[in-house]
Every structure is written in structure tokens, then in C-alpha cells.
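Retro notes
What went well: the complex prediction finally ran end to end.
Inputs used:
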Amino acid sequence: MSTLSNSRYHHGNLRQALLEAALVILAKEGEAGLGLRDLARAVGVSPAAPYRHFDSRAALLEALAVTGFQRFTARMEAVAASEPDNPLAAMGKTYVVFALQNPNLFRLMFSPQLKKAARPGLAMAADAAFDTLRRVVSDSSAEGRIKALSAWAKVHGLAVLLLDGQIAIGAGEDTEALIAEIISSL
Amino acid sequence: MSTLSNSRYHHGNLRQALLEAALVILAKEGEAGLGLRDLARAVGVSPAAPYRHFDSRAALLEALAVTGFQRFTARMEAVAASEPDNPLAAMGKTYVVFALQNPNLFRLMFSPQLKKAARPGLAMAADAAFDTLRRVVSDSSAEGRIKALSAWAKVHGLAVLLLDGQIAIGAGEDTEALIAEIISSL
């Protein structure tokens, strides 16, 4: 693809275009395929243009993880609102399905390489996801925190075990039904 | 270290010596530090000697994961037997503590790179760990499987979230006490 003029992107639009293109590359090729120069080529801007929005590859990965958490939280909030009878089970299933549908993004969001302690924006986006769970599970007491951590551990573990191919799924077995059965014991 | 005569190892002893040395290297340096030649040097045998026991680096990693599962299962069986009143909580805590004490070994045991479907020995060792959990949780019915998967998902998720630094531990908070509280809701 030829490098088009950067002027087709208004300020802000280029950042969004870069993030969208990066999400596509991440989904197809994994984190290893993501470089700022390749991204510039994919979006059709000069090699230097992405640096106006992302200082480094690490900054791009952080922005992708933040975007991932925002979409993840929005999806969990929407499903909790739409299933008021059992919001916890609905959120749990959404958590696991999100991971299976977006494996590379999910791994990036929870990558130990992206240290949340050193990245306030990422920590805030991750906390918002946990707060959504906590509001549904219980109040803000210490006991409520334990309950929310317990529910989180279960859905996260199920997502990771399925992503990593650790749970033996029988031939013809319906993975979504299995997820629903395991989650329903929340 | 100078290369000693291979004759100091009887058949079988060398394999065991290589595995023990590899476990130490894995714990200290992670998987990246493990090569068959480095291992030969660490044990003090000729560079070719490890190949009599392990065809390849992948075979060594598989043997380490099998050893990990055997020790993990033995520890869980011992703790379940010693705490008959609440074997599930005891096993759950042991699961998470094993992961935190042996992070690199735990990651290797559950690595998606070591495909269990293609490695019957590894699949058998992993199944033995799951069977230990399943015997404690319930019978061998379909419902028992769901209960066991549910308990597994929870302890695995807690282990992974703690290993990856995703759960915010307050200053002065006791991690083992937190684990026990979360597990006790099993």
C-alpha cells in the first residue's frame, strides 16, 4: 500500500485508526506482529506519524490493553443490565466468551509484562472492569471484595484453561454449554 | 566445572540427575535458560550424554512438566489425606501455594506450547492431578465433572492472577490469608 498523505486524518482520528488497525494485526498475528512502522504502513501514513500518538511500542501495547479493558467492561455492563435476574452468571459467561473470541487481546490485557503498577491508565481501566464485577457481586465491604475476587478467579481460570487447551472437551461436546454449566455454580 | 566421566552415573541415575539440575535451572533462569548442552555442563557429563535420555529440548521440557505434575499431585494427595474434614480447601490452598513457590515450573506444566494431545505421558500426569481433585469433589458422574472443573477453574485462576500480579495486594496484607479466604468459599 502506498503511503498516503497524513492530512486525511484529523487529530484524534489517526490515533483511533492506528488502534483499530493494531487490533486487527494483534488478532491475526499476535503481539509479535505489532511494530509502529508496520502499523504506519497498514494505515497508510508516514513511518514517523504513529510516534505523534505513541512514544514507543510499549505505549501502543498499553493503549491496546486499555481499549481491550474498556470494551470488555462495556460488554459486561451491558449483559449485567440485560439479565437482572442473574447478572453474575451472565457476566461470567461474557468474560469467558470474550477471552475465547479475542485470545491475543485478552492475553495482552492480562500480560505480566505490562506492569499495571507502572501504568496508571491501564490500572484504572482494569480496575473499572473489576469494579463492575464487584458492584454486581456485593457491597464494598471486605467480605464483598473476597466474594468478587472469588468470582473473578473462577471465570479467569476457566478462560485461561480453555485458551491454553487444558480442559479436555469431548468430541461433539458444546463448549458454550459447558461454560454455562461451570459458571452457573457461581 | 570440568567434564567428569559419565561412568559416575548408573543408567537411570543420570536421567534423574539431569532432571534435578534442570529443575534448578528452570527455577532460577526460566525456560529460556534450559539447553541440553548447558545442562550437560551443569551436571558434569559430556555434551552428548543428555541425548541418551532426552531426544530434544522439547523432550526435556516434557519430562520436567511430567515431574512437576507428579510432585504437584503427590502434594495434593498428602494434604487431602491429612485434612479429611475439608480436603477441598486444603488442596486448593496447596494448588495456589505450589504455583507461587514454583512459578516457572507451574507455567511450564500448563504451557499451551506443550500440547498434551500429542504427549500421552504428559496428558496422563496432568489427568492424574485432575483425578485427585475429582475424587475429593465428587463421584465420576457428569455432574461431578462439572463440580471438579469449577473448583479447578477457581484455584487455577487465583494462581494465575497472583502469579501475573493482577490482584492488588494491600501493603502489609497477608497473601496466604487472602488465598485461604478466597479458597474457603469453594
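What we learned: The CA atoms of residues 76 and 91 of chain B lie 5 Å apart.
What to try next: split runs per interface for comparison.
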